[in-house]
Amino acid sequence: MYRFVGVATIALVTSACAPLQPSTSSPAPVESREPGQPSSVEKPSSVPQPSQTTPKHIEPAGQRSRPAQKAVNSLLQEGWAYYRVENYQRAMAIAGRAQRLDPQRAEVYLLLASGNFAQGKYGLAEQLGQRGLSFSQNEAIIQRKLQDLLAQIQKVAF
Fold it and tell me: What is the 3-state secondary structure (H, E, C) of 19-71?
């Protein structure tokens, strides 16, 4: 008896989590009424069909949105400020937020690698530096700083 109840409960719970199948039929009628008017059901005529919709502008992968860039720049400034006063944990936490917004920004990895290096986490600092270097092709200054940091890591760690 208990086994049946357990199986039924599991079936009920998992069926509630199952994804719904998208409808391929036409949209349901929409009720349209003005205050004081009797209700009337009409099919929506202004709903565009998939073939009628114009594609939205899709940003190429290499370009980043301006608000996100501003946020990342602001976070990096704040992170470097904490790094300069040797608050490495806070600097890296802020760099982590910047990384979530722009995971291909080389300077984010420079800050993360620098913070880990300052804390003696040389292996992690090297990994982050290498990762940042892979994203730094168009940023000569950041690329040079990452290379310098990786050279320092090599001297200290090995």
Answer: CCCCCCCCCCCEEECCCCCCCEEECCCCCCCCCCCCCCCCCCCCCCCHHHHHH
Please tell me the number of Cα atoms within 13 Å of 143 on its side-chain side: 7
Paired residues of 30 in beta bridges: 42
| Inter-residue contact 99 to 108 (CB < 8 Å) | yes
pTM for this model (two decimals): 0.60
Name residue 130's beta-bridge partners. none
Closest CA to 146 of 137, 53, 28, 123: 137
Angle formed by the axes of helices 106-118 and 88-101, nearest 10°: 160
Digits of tens for pLDDT over the chain (158 positions)? Answer: 555 554 544 544 444 444 444 445 555 555 555 555 555 444 444 544 444 444 444 444 445 567 889 999 999 999 999 999 999 999 999 999 999 999 999 999 999 999 999 999 999 999 999 999 999 999 999 999 999 999 999 999 76
Measured CA to CA in angstroms, residue 155 lies from 129, 147, 149 at distances of 15, 13, 10
28-66: b or e for each residue (b if 16 or more CB lie within 10 Å)?
eeeeeeeeeeeeeeeeeeeeeeeeeeeeeeeeeeeeeee
